[in-house]
């Protein structure tokens, strides 16, 4: 009977791998001969560093010059759907600089290959780093084919690499190497709007040295970035971030801002207030895994510019908690099964809000019971204690 069980498990794993590969391949535009739409911006940043033009990183005229060179290589129309301005802090361009020595047609397949390698590394190493090998090994195919990973590859985005950095930094911090983990986590400031929740979560779980390392390394990176582009560059960057040309489809995001577009400001405010109160309750009295989950989810929900590729960071959540509900909610391929349109936005919002609300309720409920059953002064009775840590 045991051998039959092992055989069934292997058959299920093979079927899962084949199904995941089929669904992921159908979602990859590169397999239809299309160039990832966001990849030119990364290439432009790398080229400008190599050409000694890093101070003009946010100059629209400089980006137009880069486009002219790219059009000379007959770039596919799909790669030029929007302006592809470089919107990362300047230190991110320095990290990309080695790619600047390549042609664009060498760059984007290599960048995509590195992203695929990152997804494979996440599926292989996350269970080991977080001690979840037995529980998570059967999810390896769906970790690699996690829809936000596939979307990131299809768009030429870098969030798989950021997810790998997030997982490695948390594994270091939770194993006691706070300074190394906090310093590594500072690389998430490549997308600052996704990183602001992490130091709050680390403070909540008492990892102060990690927060100091994060702030120190992050401060150096951001101050260095400002020095590279100067005051004029910072003004140009602010103008690009505020421009409608870099914010084309906010209603397609996976955040509360998109909810405001579709359901109105009043509904979005009510949901934001509920989620905010729940997040604060979890940060104050939740378990370690739940506090770290708030550090990942809060920026995704509240930041004004988060798309499907940014949900890649959620891939760390099943490895932080033993909850099977969280594993299924994150890694099950429900996003592949959504009808065309923006249905996935509301499912993610509902799942994230329900998770935070349920965790907050579990914290508040024993506190309420404690106040009801509290003994009179001088009593030796044992009462319920609040908190779940």
Q: Helicity range of the residues? A: 55-70%
Mean pLDDT: 86
Total count of strands: 0
Structural class: mainly alpha
What does this structure look like?
With 389 residues, the protein is an all-alpha fold. It has 2 domains: 2-247 and 305-337, no CATH class; 248-304 and 338-389, no CATH class. Helices cover 66% and strands 0% of the residues. The chain has 19 helices and no strands. Helix 14 packs antiparallel against helix 15 (265-285) and helix 15 (265-285) runs antiparallel to helix 16. The longest helix is centred in the middle third of the chain and has 34 residues, at 208-241. The chain is globular, with a radius of gyration of 23 Å. The relative contact order is 0.10.
What's the helix and strand layout?
Elements: H1 2-26, H2 39-50, H3 60-71, H4 90-96, H5 104-129, H6 133-136, H7 140-144, H8 147-155, H9 159-174, H10 178-185, H11 192-195, H12 197-204, H13 208-241, H14 256-263, H15 265-285, H16 288-302, H17 317-320, H18 324-331, H19 343-373
Helix pairs in contact: 2-4, 5-8, 5-9, 9-10, 10-13, 12-13, 12-16, 14-15, 15-16, 15-19, 16-19
């Amino acid at each position: 009977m045991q051998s039959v069980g092992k055989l069934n498990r292997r058959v299920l794993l093979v079927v899962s791998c084949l199904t995941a590969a089929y669904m992921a391949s159908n979602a990859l535009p590169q397999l239809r001969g299309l160039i990832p739409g966001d990849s030119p911006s990364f290439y432009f940043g790398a080229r400008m560093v190599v050409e000694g033009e890093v101070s003009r990183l946010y100059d629209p005229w400089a980006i137009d010059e880069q486009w002219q060179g790219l059009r000379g290589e007959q770039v596919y129309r799909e790669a030029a759907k929007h302006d592809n301005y470089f919107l990362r802090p300047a230190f991110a361009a320095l990290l990309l600089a080695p790619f600047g020595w390549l042609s664009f047609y060498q760059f984007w397949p290599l960048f995509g290959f590195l992203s695929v390698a990152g997804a494979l590394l996440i599926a292989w190493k996350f269970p080991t780093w977080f001690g979840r090998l037995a529980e998570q090994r059967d999810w390896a195919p769906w970790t690699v084919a996690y829809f936000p990973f596939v979307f990131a590859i299809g768009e030429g985005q870098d969030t798989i690499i950021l997810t790998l950095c997030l997982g490695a930094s948390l594994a270091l911090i939770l194993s006691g190497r706070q300074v190394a983990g906090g310093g590594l986590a500072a690389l998430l400031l490549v997308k600052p709007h996704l990183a602001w929740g992490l130091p709050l979560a680390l403070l909540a779980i008492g990892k102060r040295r990690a927060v100091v390392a994060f702030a120190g390394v992050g401060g150096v990176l951001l101050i260095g970035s400002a020095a590279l582009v100067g005051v004029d560059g910072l003004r140009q960057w602010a103008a690009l971030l505020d421009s409608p040309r870099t914010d084309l489809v906010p209603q397609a995001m996976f955040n509360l801002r998109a909810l405001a577009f579709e359901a109105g400001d009043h509904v979005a405010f009510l949901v934001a207030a509920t989620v905010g109160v729940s997040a604060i309750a979890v940060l104050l009295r939740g378990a370690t895994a739940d506090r770290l989950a708030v550090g990942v989810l809060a920026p995704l929900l509240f930041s004004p510019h988060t798309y499907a590729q940014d949900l890649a960071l959620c891939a760390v959540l099943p490895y932080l908690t033993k909850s099977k509900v969280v594993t299924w909610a994150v890694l099950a391929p429900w996003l592949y099964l959504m009808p065309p349109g923006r249905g996935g936005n509301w499912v993610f919002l509902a799942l994230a809000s329900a998770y935070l609300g349920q965790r907050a309720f579990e914290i508040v409920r024993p506190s309420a019971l404690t106040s009801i059953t509290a003994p009179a002064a001088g009593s030796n009775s044992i009462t319920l204690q609040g908190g779940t840590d």
